[in-house]
Amino acid sequence: MTNPECATSLAQLTDDKAFLPRHIGPTPTQQAEMAQAIGYPSLEALIDATLPEQIRRAAPMNLEGPRSEQQVLEYLQHYADQNVVKRSVIGMGYHDTFTPAVIQRNVLENPGWYTAYTPYQPEISQGRLEVLLTFQQMVMDLTGMDLANASLLDEGTAAAEAMTLVQRVNKKNRSKRFVVAGDCHPQTIALLRSRAEPLGLMVDVANPDELLDPGEAFGLLVQYPGTYGNVVDLKAITEAGHARNTLVVAASDLLALTLLESPGAQGVDVVVGNTQRFGVPMGFGGPHAAFFATREAYKRSTPGRIIGVSVDRHGNSALRMAMQTREQHIRREKATSNICTAQALLAIMAALYAMYHGPRGLRRIGERVHGLTSLLRQALADAGITVRNEHWFDTLTVEVGEAQSTLIEAALDSGFNLRVVGHDAVGIALDETTTFSEVAQLATLLGADIPPSAVDEQLAPSGIPEALRREVDYLQHPLFNDFHSETAMLRYLKRLENKDISLTRAMIPLGSCTMKLNATTEMLPVTWPEFARLHPFAPMDQCRGYQALFKELEAWLCECTGYDAMSLQPNAGSQGEYAGLLAIRRYHQARGDHQRDICLIPSSAHGTNPASAVMAGMQVVIVACDTQGNVDMSDLRDKVTQHSERLAAIMVTYPSTHGVFEESIVDLCALIHDHGGQVYVDGANLNALIGLAAPGHFGADVSHLNLHKTFCIPHGGGGPGMGPIGVRGHLADYLPNSTVAPIPGLPAENDTVSSAPYGSASILPISWTYIALMGAEGLTRASEVAILNANYVAHRLQRHFDILYTGSAGTVAHECIVDIRPLKAATGISEEDVAKRLVDFGFHAPTMSFPVAGTLMIEPTESESLAELDRFCDAMIAIREEIRRVESGALDAEDNPLKNAPHTLSLVTSDNWPHSYTRQQAAYPVASLRQDKYWAPVSRVDNVYGDRNLFCACPGMEVWQEESATE
């Protein structure tokens, strides 16, 4: 008989909200206690005091859920099952590949790698910096160029960056014309056209044989090998271009370059491409790390990040991000690019793939792919079938005449996706996963025959011209030759992982970057083959699961933000900014307002904002901020009145970059609209808004959403990211499209901002899963606790440090700014000293000197527990006490734990201890560190040395030691 006191139902025992306390750090009881500690009777009272009433949502979000983790995975598997994974031999820069299991398990699926932040703090990033430096070396070796950056977003974006670089550096040819070979990938051509038009540049697509006729051109782009498979000698093109003062860009394939003469050896000025086929799944378009390599002369104009070799304060070799580090925040509208993130995690995978296989292993893969392609071509030629390629690597274009559609259908029935070329040909691109039996099947489909005995016969004649055949003159550094066994690679990966701080070790309190939990359940679908192995240009009926997921995710994101339509194409926050501004530009043009080209931007804005505005063809006008950190409404009214006829848009971040809910936001939006402009709300701080307020409701017209922040896609040590844009209905017709795989419902002529129609599609299931797990109630509570945690930290620290900006109630949003400037004036201790000293306590530093120089911006996120928040606050308070001791003279002004931080294990255990404070004070400033201590692998890195002596390759240890000794 049932005990009446314990009576319940199965429904009551089912807990669909079980995920909520797993995502949110403080318990409900702790949330109440924290609010009371701040001075409010409840969390709800704190939120009511902090958020302006005029922006609050009128009703809760209309979202399903929450669902349990098991329910979500089952539902997501239902979507995955609707995708059909066929053997795509479409090519066009996307190829199936084998991800080495040791790399998949220990990097791609390892939170020690994917939860790390961009390596702006090099002392706690030496592990991934080493692999990113190796990535650069890999690209330099294979392309034959002087230097390379540490990856870009995709091949089309990299080509666009190359176009603007050569236009900027070509002082001898100031034309506005950029010539593109007609056999470049079509998605690249579309992206180039979109990028060129707002900048006043002209993209002229020409026959490869007539690239320089007629007229002048500042640059030209060739594909090597071409999209249809042709391999041409670049020397003649390069020489002819240089004779006309035209700089030459080659888009290339790294696997092909294991057999082909490097573009650098043929005189090319810039080489770009995609490293996807180096062990990174196609993922329906991304994420993949593009590469960008160029000449030494152009290093100061190279976009993105360059990893360089420097030294630490003791002269030991150390790595760091070099000159390009957050260039946008320094040069703003004069920045050479708006690229802020890269695809670091994917660049790391590609570099490790090259290290695991080594030069000989990569060569074997290239030779096998080329051998199978040559075998197929010979069989087709023997059968009298016309193949358009005289020279080739892995791709053939086959003439099939009127039988094209029949052949395409027959191939589909046999499990293959062929490329449609014109009206009378098909394209076939082979890859490392291609088997002999598949090649025989393809030959049979085309009307040829390859007998089983051919697998044991001598290789068919090579398709690579004698003059372009390459020896193994690449990847000779020991890093590419020492880790070919799984044991060696496994230990190497663990050694590197242990050098870095990720979310697996401690909170990462970066203001403006939202480094919160990336739950394992959210990450699982990324490697499911139904999501990972789809080609981005596969037939629509093979990706119905993706389409259903996209449709639902778009609807959910619209509900979260108050917008009417959503684009999932931009594959980074910077690209979302750019896409949103292009939509505003097209909207004004459609209304005949071609003169509207002024973009107002507050002085506190993210540096990518002005850079994006310039790329979208707009002129930037800066609006001042008042003493409270808010947009100065008086100055704004003056600027709006002054530029009323030309006003295109304003870009504002909300809550503000200063960490405050500005009460004038509704009036600001109305003022801009009254003068014919559009309001762009930067979505960097949506983590404080979801469920509480919606930009689309309080007056914004467009926003980008940082899915890699608010919606839980991990940062990956500097990428991947996704930056979809939400728009009001009047801008919906101007969202980005794809010429290769058009997005239903959008005009065909719309701009293209990413190579793939849905950007980095394979990581979108992460955000879908997060929303499904949380539901409306959970998402709202996440925003509330993000605000609570930030205010708790500010409350604990305000008795020891100045909190720079607060709202009218004395509270902050989801981040707070600690002002170190008064302390520096009194003691000489800087924000950098505090940041580096935090490393000794086992923490990643907060955002340093942004948005205000001399400050630290702290964002704890909702996922951090009360214990971790207290541990961080205790560390900051202990550091403040050390500063007081400097101020009192108890610690030397120059020889103290802050100036000398971080302290390495080798320093603390050395026979010689030259400092006036104790080893214990250096290493164990709080007792808990004796149980779990993170040791920085290097001391403070010398940034000036690294910039003055830019070196971005992989030197041997003996070279580093010699340089250190010399210095």
TrEMBL record:
Assembly, per entry: The glycine cleavage system is composed of four proteins: P, T, L and H.
GO biological process: glycine decarboxylation via glycine cleavage system
Organism: Luminiphilus syltensis NOR5-1B
Modified residues (N6-(pyridoxal phosphate)lysine): K709
Role played: The glycine cleavage system catalyzes the degradation of glycine. The P protein binds the alpha-amino group of glycine through its pyridoxal phosphate cofactor; CO(2) is released and the remaining methylamine moiety is then transferred to the lipoamide cofactor of the H protein.
HAMAP family: GcvP
Pfam families: GcvP2_C, GDC-P
Gene this chain is encoded by: gcvP
Matches recorded under Gene3D superfamilies: Aspartate Aminotransferase, domain 1, Type I PLP-dependent aspartate aminotransferase-like (Major domain)
Glycine dehydrogenase C-terminal domain residues: 782-903
Substrates-to-products reaction catalysed: N(6)-[(R)-lipoyl]-L-lysyl-[glycine-cleavage complex H protein] + glycine + H(+) = N(6)-[(R)-S(8)-aminomethyldihydrolipoyl]-L-lysyl-[glycine-cleavage complex H protein] + CO2
All copies of domain Glycine cleavage system P-protein N-terminal, residue ranges: 22-445, 459-736
Keywords (A to Z) from UniProt: Oxidoreductase, Pyridoxal phosphate
InterPro entries xref list: GcvP (IPR003437), GDC-P_C (IPR049316), GDC-P_N (IPR049315), GDC_P (IPR020581), PyrdxlP-dep_Trfase (IPR015424), PyrdxlP-dep_Trfase_major (IPR015421), PyrdxlP-dep_Trfase_small (IPR015422)
Record-stated family: Belongs to the GcvP family.
EC annotation from Swiss-Prot or TrEMBL: 1.4.4.2
TM regions (residue ranges): none
Full protein name: Glycine dehydrogenase (decarboxylating)
Name of the top EC class for this enzyme: oxidoreductase
Cellular component GO terms held in the UniProt record: cytosol; glycine cleavage complex
